[in-house]
Amino acid sequence: MTEDLSQWQQQIAAAKQAGTRRHFAAGEDLLREGEVATQLFFVEKGGLRLWHNADGDDVTVQFFFAGEAVVSFESFYLGEPSLFSITAIESTEVVAVPVAAFRAALQQDPQALAAFTDRICRRFIAYTQYFLNLLEFTPEQRYLRLQAERPDLLTRVPQYELATYLGITPVSLSRIRQRLKKTPPA
After folding, report:
1. Which residues of 125-162 are buried (b: 16+ CB within 10 A; e: fewer)?
2. Contact (CB, 8 A) for 118 and 4
3. What count of Cα atoms within 13 Å lies in the side-chain half-sphere of residue 67?
4. What percent of the chain lies above the pLDDT cut of 90?
5. Could you give the residue ranges of the DSSP H alpha helices within the chain?
6. How confident is the model over 115-167, as pLDDT tens digits?
7. Rounded to an integer, what distance in angstroms lies between the CA atom of residue 136 and that of residue 177?
8. How many other β-carbons are positioned within 10 Å of the β-carbon of residue 20?
9. CA-CA distance, 49 to 90, in Å (whole number)?
10. pLDDT digits (tens, 9 = 90+) for 38-72
11. HSE-up of residue 7 (Cα within 13 Å, Cβ side)
12. What is the pLDDT of residue 21?
């Protein structure tokens, strides 16, 4: 695993050489649903969310912070319009690397390709767990799991966006939080 992490870090460093440093204000889109992903983003500072508009309702699928990379993978891989938007949740600095340059770097380095494939597989597993959590757990259980596994999100992510990640309304999130303050879980 350490070797894979080292390969990933080397890949990031090499890829950033072809990139451009950019700043995005909170609420600013890096990619809009329906656009084709032409850049991969390495988060240097701040935070992003990957989300989908489901008939007028936001559905946040993932958050990304410093040291992480994000792209709408389907769009990146297939060259088709993205099903997701990528939006800054706070003042954010990224290194934006053209998809073509990133793909070329992967083709030239089998170890980098293996590290990237490992990252994609881990992301797929995380998404599978996320969707199963939405199906198998109550909103309160999802909140408690998030509280145990990612407490940083509870203070860093705006409550509206946290609610969309949990698959509930902001009002429901507020009620859950109030209920748990009155009667903490056993």
Report:
1. eeeeeeeeeeeeeebbebbeebeeeeeebeeebeeebb
2. yes
3. 2
4. 63
5. 2-16, 73-78, 99-108, 110-136, 139-149, 151-156, 159-166, 170-182
6. 888 888 988 898 899 889 889 999 999 999 999 999 999 999 999 999 999 99
7. 20
8. 11
9. 10
10. 999 999 999 999 999 999 889 999 999 998 889 99
11. 17
12. 95
Distances, alpha carbon 81 to alpha carbons 60, 73, 105, in Å: 18, 11, 23
Distance CA 180, CA 183 (A): 5
Q: At what angle do helices 170-182 and 139-149 cross, to 10 degrees?
A: 70
What six digits make up the tokens of 34? 């329906």
Q: Who's near 174: CB < 8 A, 6+ residues apart?
A: 159
Beta bridge partners of 22: 94
What's the one-letter identity of residue 33? Answer: E
* Residues whose CB is less than 8 angstroms from the CB of residue 155 and which lie 6 or more positions away in sequence, other chains included: none
Is residue 103 within 8 Å of residue 15, measured between CB atoms?
Answer: no
Find out whether 38 and 19 touch, Cβ atoms under 8 Å. Answer: no
Residue located via tokens 């989908």: 52
